[in-house]
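Example 3.2
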Amino acid sequence: MRIIGNKSQGLYTLKPQRYEDERGFFSETYNKDELNEIGLDREFIQDNHVFSKDAYVLRGLHFQSPPFKLS
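Structure, written as tokens:
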């Protein structure tokens, strides 16, 4: 994610990076660790935006078995 602005003004523009291919795209629209660096401390970890052009396309699926690290 590209973060534009500065802390003294308190105003930022967040530009998520978008990864595209012939199936569609994937974009991480929120990342707690990155936004903590500019003072946004919320109990929300991560959010992604996924679009698949064709029906029945599965993308961006992730599973993690314990023990795992919560940010």
